[in-house]
Specification:
The chain is an alpha/beta fold. The protein has four helices and five strands; from the N terminus they run βαβαβαββα. The chain has a single domain, classed as Glutaredoxin (3-Layer(aba) Sandwich). It has a five-stranded mixed sheet with strand order 1-3-2-4-5.
């Protein structure tokens, strides 16, 4: 998984071709931490088809807000740099994330 920060978000996500998943999380978000191993398993399963990234919003709040992330956990799916779908809060479960991916590959 690509670790995102303010400095590389544009290059790794917005300027990327194909599908990119971004897992927005923070140190204080227990549901985010619980979900992370499942997201990492999906990253392995879809390696070569979807680029997986994660962004700790603790140091990138403005960036998260600019992407309309208003609660956690939030998983956004981008295609060729444009946000096309999202799974948020209570819906952020591995099965829902995988269903979102399957719809677009």
């Amino acid at each position: 998984m690509v670790i995102l920060e303010k400095d590389n978000f544009e290059e790794e996500v917005l300027n990327s071709k194909g599908l990119v998943i971004v897992d927005f999380w923070s140190d204080g978000c227990e549901p985010c931490k619980a979900l992370m191993p499942e997201v990492e398993a999906l990253a392995e399963k879809y390696e070569g088809k979807v680029k997986f990234c994660k962004l700790n919003i603790t140091k990138a709040r403005r960036l998260a807000i600019s992407q309309r992330v208003m609660g956690l956990p939030t998983i956004l799916l981008y295609k060729d740099g444009a946000k096309i779908e999202e799974v948020t809060k209570d819906e952020a479960k591995a099965a829902n994330i995988e269903a979102m991916i399957e719809k677009h590959i």
